[in-house]
Amino acid sequence: MMFIADRWLDYEVLDCGDGEKLERWKDTVLRRPDPQTIWPKRRPELWQRADAWYHRSSQGGGGWEFFRELPERWTLQYDDLTFYVRPTGFKHTGLFPEQAVNWDWMRGLITQRLSQGGATPKVLNLFAYTGGATVACAAAGAQVCHVDAAKGMTQWAKENRGLCGLPEDRIRWILDDAKKFVEREVRRGSLYDGILMDPPSYGRGPGGEVWKLEAELYGLVEACAAALSATPLFFLINSYTTGLAPSVLDNMIGLTVKPRFGGVSESGEIGLPVSAGGVLPCGASGRWWQNE
Q1: pTM above 0.90, yes or no
Q2: Residues 6+ apart with CB under 8 A from 115
Q3: Are 5 and 97 in contact (CB under 8 A)?
Q4: Which of 179, 204, 253, 271 is most open to solvent, judged by the fewest CB atoms within 10 Å of its CB?
Q5: pLDDT tens readout for residues 71-119
Q6: Other residues' Cβ atoms within 10 Å of the Cβ of residue 270
Q7: Torsions phi, psi for 107 (to 5 deg)
C-alpha cells in the first residue's frame, strides 16, 4: 500500500533519479539529494531549470549553490493552509509535502467527529517540526499540543500558525523531550484523542538526550498509547528511516493501541507523484483509527 500526496498545486516533483530530486516550490525550482532515487533521470533537460542546487560534502553535510537570487523565504499554499519555506543549511525547506496525505486523513477524522456533535478533539503532535500537521489539525477544529525540542523550529511553526490565521489559543507550544513530556502528561491525567509522531532516525533533546529510533521508538509508542483518551480518534507514526518497513509500524500499533481500543490499522509507504513519471518514495506511515 502507498499513501500518495497528489493534491498539491504549489508543489511538484518534476523529476528524480541518479540520487537526486528536482522540485518546484511555487515559482522556485530546487535540486536536492535523495539517496533512494537510484534509477536514471527521466527528463535530464528539466534539470537546467534549477534555481538552487544542494551539494553534499564528502565530509558530511553540504551547501547550496544558487543560480539566481532567491527571497529569504516565501509561502506555499495547500487548501486553506499557508506555510513559509526556505532552503536551510541541512538541505531541508521547512516542509515535508508528502505529509499532506496524512493531514487530509487526520482532518477528515476530526471533521467527522465534530459534525457528529463530539467534543473538540485534543491532538498531540510529537517531533512537530515547523507545524505542518499542527496547523492542519487546528484548522480542522482540534485543540493541538505541539511538542518539539528545537526552539527555532517551534518559532517557525508559530509563524505558520499566524499565516493560517488560526487563533493563538488553538495551539499549545511545548519545547521538550517527546517521551518525557508524554510520561508527565499521563501522570497528570492529560489525555489526547489523537496522537501523531514524526521521529528522526537520530537526534538530541533540549537537554542533550540522545535519540536513536531503533532503540527508542517502541517505548515512545507504548507511552503514547497510555496517553490516549477513552474515546480516541487516531494514532499515527511516521518514519523516514531507510530500511524500516511499514509493517514494523503496524506491528507496534498492533501491540500497543489495538489491544486497548480495537479499531482499524493500516501501514504503507508515503509518496509523491513525479511529473516526469513514477512515484517518489518518502518514508512510511502506520495509521490507526477508531471505526466510528
Answers
A1: yes
A2: none
A3: yes
A4: 204
A5: 999 999 999 999 999 999 889 999 999 999 999 999 999 999 999 999 9
A6: 25
A7: -65, -35
Statement: residue 223 has pLDDT above 80: yes
The C-alpha cell that represents 9 in the structure block: 498545486
d(CA 84, CA 197): 21
Q: How far apart are the C-alpha atoms of 221 and 228, rounded to whole Å?
A: 11
Report the greatest alpha carbon distance in the chain. 58
Measured CA to CA, the distance from residue 78 to residue 7 in angstroms comes to 8
Any residues with CB less than 8 A from the CB of 212 and at least 6 apart, and which? 201, 202
Is the C-alpha dihedral spanning 199, 195, 186, 173 positive or negative? positive
Nearest-angstrom CA–CA distance, 25 and 10: 6
**AA identity, residue 227:** A
